[in-house]
């Protein structure tokens, strides 16, 4: 009886402490999803699919125009509709922003971050490219780095990373008070844990 009472008190204490300090640890959950970008001049810029409003493509094009790499590799095998592929929308936007078709490459089989890494790695090895900048959305960058570093381990390819700001959520501040932000943060955390268990353990 005493042990049960002590356990109840402990649980209640944890809940109260978590509630009291939520303004400290809840923001940290969102902040942990993003890594510090470290883009360095490379052979190619890999742009991951899954963008909401073209933010990843726009960030990659900006890097391209700033001379970080001479070509872009768009990686996405998903369909937007029965006749429109996501990767085609990304390349169309890149061309609209001034990137010549000769500088654009595509990988259109991947349906996950892991497959993004797996299939682009093969392209880089086939092309003889030795370095790449990976572009994704900021809140997706930690999982992206975790997966790419694992898949590219021992390949000799040097990776760096650049993050695009999410155009849907200007900020993830107070994410626990916004249903859409909640979905973004909690879903990404769930995927981060699953990927760690599935691919890294």
From TrEMBL:
Record's protein name: DUF218 domain-containing protein
Any GO CC annotation of this UniProt entry: plasma membrane
PANTHER family assigned: ENVELOPE BIOGENESIS FACTOR ELYC, INNER MEMBRANE PROTEIN, PROBABLE PERMEASE
Protein's GO biological process: Gram-negative-bacterium-type cell wall biogenesis; peptidoglycan metabolic process
Coiled-coil features, chain-numbered ranges: none
TM spans (from-to): none
Domain called DUF218: residue spans: 43-190
Species per Swiss-Prot/TrEMBL record: Effusibacillus lacus
InterPro entries in alphabetical order: Cell_Envelope_Assoc, DUF218, Rossmann-like_a/b/a_fold
Lineage, top ranks: Bacteria, Bacillati, Bacillota, Bacilli, Bacillales
